[in-house]
Write a structure and sequence with these properties.
Length: 80
């Protein structure tokens, strides 16, 4: 059988994960898998945020200023 690569928009890891879970999985296992993936991704996110904060020299004072500033864009009322 010829191995033809079809473009799915998924990378090799995503395809491998889909194949790994190509079976009925009990709800409690699905929840456990979601928790493991969420924990992994959140750890990676916090590591990256810590790296950027250190690299950019962002201080606690900078965070306090961001927290107190109103960052929402105020829309202009049209005269229509």
């Amino acid at each position: 059988m010829k191995n033809t690569k079809i473009s799915t928009g998924l990378n090799d890891i995503q395809i491998g994960l889909l194949r790994m879970f190509d079976r009925q999985i009990p709800d409690d296992e699905v929840l456990e898998i979601k928790k493991v993936l969420t924990k992994h991704l959140s750890e990676k996110l916090f590591t990256e945020v810590d790296r950027v904060v250190k690299e950019k020299g962002i201080s606690e004072k900078d965070f306090d200023k961001l927290e107190s500033d109103d960052l929402r864009t105020k829309s202009k009322k049209s005269d229509d």
